[in-house]
Design brief:
The complex is a heterodimer.
Chain A lengths: L2 H25 L5 H6 L3 H12 L2 H14 L1 H28 L4 H6 L5 H34 L3 H19 L5 H25 L4 H11 L16 H14 L4 H8 L4 H33 L1 H7 L6 H50 L6 H24 L6 H25 L5 H20 L5 E2 L7 E2 L10 H19 L4 H13 L7
Parallel strand pairs in A: 1-2
Helix pairs in contact in A: 1-9, 1-15, 3-9, 3-13, 4-5, 4-7, 4-13, 4-15, 4-17, 5-11, 5-13, 5-17, 5-20, 7-8, 7-15, 7-16, 7-17, 7-18, 8-15, 8-16, 9-13, 9-15, 10-13, 11-17, 11-19, 13-14, 13-15, 15-16, 17-18, 17-19, 18-19
Chain B lengths: L18 H6 L1 H34 L6 E3 L2 E2 H45 L1
Antiparallel strand pairs in B: 1-2
Helix pairs in contact in B: 2-3
The chains are: A mainly alpha, B mainly alpha.
């Protein structure tokens, strides 16, 4: 890339960070990291949720998937959107009403046991790492394309930069990073979509006709089945997408930090509108990239298709738009990774180290130190794993994180709020069954084993046929929680009455 | 947890609430029944509507027939998912306001006054 692009890119990234820093300074009323979020309005929090959600996967991954596989890529957009109905109807308000900060804290409203806290922390850390891999693969591909350096070097540079950012500036990375980023990302998407539609005189039908002949797939491009030929595989992926959001720690955390359930509800609605518009636009980006960039060029830049959106920006708007889109994508990744590292690190420092290892006696200083070490360890692990994931589409990688969230966290959340008999053993078995079946099945799946050398981590026949195991692991998570509860027998009806009333009415006092 | 005190329902902190008694009350049972009658059918509906898309595209091909010019039915079904999401969002918010009133009524009737007596 030319020096102009690089200078523009660096300038826009720095500008984003400066705006974010300024905005966070303007609004910081208390020193408390958590309650800082409590001062946001429903609309602002909705923007922040959108910012958290519209990560590199949505932007780079889905645009690439649609560009390469047509309708099959659009499945991601639909799944990621409908997931918000699950959040709105089933989890947002009860969780907010129980008024805690992490999933482990929420489970603690019903169960005191340390092992519940430990299991929840473990799944939070695992989900954070998987989500981070996706972001790092996207960022790596972007830096590789921009600076023309090998992917490995690119990932290492990005990884180190992000670790430094989180370790030294992590606490500034509050909601405002997400808000600024969400606005910039939407602006970028709207500009590109406008330029694409302009070429067709704003006639969507003409765009469909054009794309029908533009790719090597011909008319099949507009039909489902180009990428997902296995019916159960498609349904399994869709299951992970629709149920995963309701179990994502960094999204749920946003409901814990608003003023009341009403604000939580408003923010979900705002987020649903913004995210919905965003996902409609992914279609124009994907089709645009297929028409104006071409699949050969997209695959050449990155085999997963992750560079379709930036390349389209370059084709339509020249160097400036390319630099702008690349910078926004990069800032997006930086912000999401910061949030993920923080949620992983706080699960470790607050839940595992503070409450279990030190049994609540750790000083603030010790916890801070533990959080930093944990942030460092989480980053290193994610960097190493993402070196192996270069050829995978980032939207696909995110779907694995969603699968773990849907299998390990969603069953326990729903049981805690809605099932009277649910108990401590059930909570532990629900989380662990979901978490480990998801992990084990992914490690035996076609994304890890492939008969063709270079397509996956290892050469060999996959033992488990589905690339996304949600169809098996989510029911097993629910079953694990059910069996654990039934076989252990103990139950605390009184405690459930309290949780039920608080979760449904928003009453916040203490009981007898 | 400083934000607990900001919550408007927690000014009257009562240390002797009998949650089991509230749970057993007709008023609360009615409230839960109303919520269930609203949430359950809608949730079942949107999940079926959602999974119908991958099921139909996986096992049939009739959605591939053109609907408007080169836009086939499968795309219209996909766009319908977006419309459904926005419509259900709006319906939920409208309905939730009435649930808020019922919930506040329960807190007022049973927890802040009635609950104290137990």
């Amino acid at each position: 890339m030319s020096p102009t692009v690089i200078v523009l890119f660096l300038a826009i990234v720095s500008l984003t960070l400066v705006i974010t820093y300024w905005a966070s300074k303007q609004t910081q009323t208390t020193g408390d990291f958590y309650t800082a979020g409590g001062g946001l309005t429903g609309f602002q929090n909705g923007l922040a949720i959108s910012g958290d959600y519209l990560s590199a996967a949505s932007f780079l991954g889905i645009a690439g998937s649609i560009a390469l596989y047509g309708f099959d890529g659009f499945f991601y957009s639909i799944g990621f959107l409908i997931a918000y109905l699950v959040v709105l109807f089933l989890v947002a308000e009860p969780l907010r009403n129980l008024g805690k900060y992490t999933i482990a804290d929420m489970l603690n409203a019903r169960f005191d046991a340390k092992k519940v806290r430990g299991a929840a922390a473990l799944s939070t850390i695992t989900i954070s790492i998987f989500y981070m891999i996706a972001q790092l693969v996207g960022a790596g591909a972007l830096i590789q394309l921009l600076f023309d350096i090998p992917y490995t070097v690119a990932v290492l540079i990005v990884g180190v930069m992000m670790t430094i950012y989180v370790l030294f500036g992590g606490m500034i990375a509050t909601s405002w990073v997400q808000i600024v980023k969400a606005v910039l990302l939407m602006a970028g998407m709207l500009i590109i979509s406008f330029l694409v539609l302009w070429h067709f005189n704003f006639n969507i039908g003409a765009m469909f006709s054009e794309v029908k002949t533009a790719t090597s797939h011909g008319a099949d491009y507009l039909n489902p089945g180009l990428q997902y030929t296995e019916p159960l595989g498609t349904i399994s992926l869709m299951l992970a997408l629709v149920l995963g959001t309701a179990g994502l720690p960094h999204i749920l955390m946003r409901f814990f930090t608003v003023k009341d359930a009403k604000t939580a509800r408003k923010s979900v609605v705002t987020a649903t509108w913004i995210i919905g518009v965003f996902y409609v636009l992914t279609l124009f980006l994907g089709f645009g990239a297929a028409i104006f960039v071409g699949d050969a060029t997209i695959v050449e830049a990155n085999p997963g298709g992750n560079m379709a959106a930036p390349l389209l920006a370059e084709a339509l708007g020249g160097e400036f738009l390319f630099a702008f889109i690349a910078a926004v994508a990069f800032a997006t990744i930086l912000a999401v990774v910061a949030g993920l590292v923080l949620s992983g690190a706080s699960a470790f420092a607050h839940d595992l180290y503070g409450q279990i290892i030190k049994k609540g006696t750790a000083s603030d200083r010790q916890q801070m130190l533990a959080a930093r070490y944990a942030a460092f360890a989480v980053s290193v692990l994610a960097i190493v794993l993402s070196l192996f994931a270069q050829y995978l589409n980032v939207a696909f990688l995110v779907s694995l994180a969603f699968c773990i969230a849907a299998s390990a966290n969603l069953p326990v959340i729903l049981y805690t709020v809605y099932w009277k008999r649910f108990n401590t053993t059930g909570a532990v078995t629900a989380i662990l069954t979901g978490l480990f079946t998801a992990l084990i099945l992914v490690s035996m799946s076609p994304s890890v084993f492939s008969p063709v050398e270079g397509e996956a981590l290892f050469v060999g026949e996959p033992i488990f046929p589905l690339t996304n195991p949600a169809l098996v692991s989510v029911p097993l998570g629910f079953l694990g929680g059910y069996l654990g509860t039934i076989f252990s027998g103990q139950t605390d009806v009184k405690r459930y009455a309290e949780v039920k009333i608080k979760a449904n009415t928003g009453y916040r006092g203490t009981g007898s | 947890m400083s934000n607990v005190s900001e919550d408007n329902t927690s000014h009257h902190v009562n240390h002797n609430v009998d949650f089991e008694k509230v749970e057993q009350s007709e008023q609360f049972k009615n409230f839960m029944q109303n919520k269930k009658k609203f949430i359950l059918p809608y949730t079942i509906f949107f999940l079926i509507f959602y999974f119908l898309l991958p099921i139909l595209t996986s096992y049939t091909t009739f959605l591939n027939t053109p609907a408007i010019g080169d836009i086939s039915w499968v795309w219209l079904f996909a766009f319908a998912q977006f419309v459904m999401t926005w419509v259900l969002c709006t319906i939920y918010v409208k309905k939730a306001a009435s649930f808020d009133d019922q919930a506040n009524q329960i807190i007022e009737d049973q927890i802040q006054d009635g609950g104290k007596a137990s």
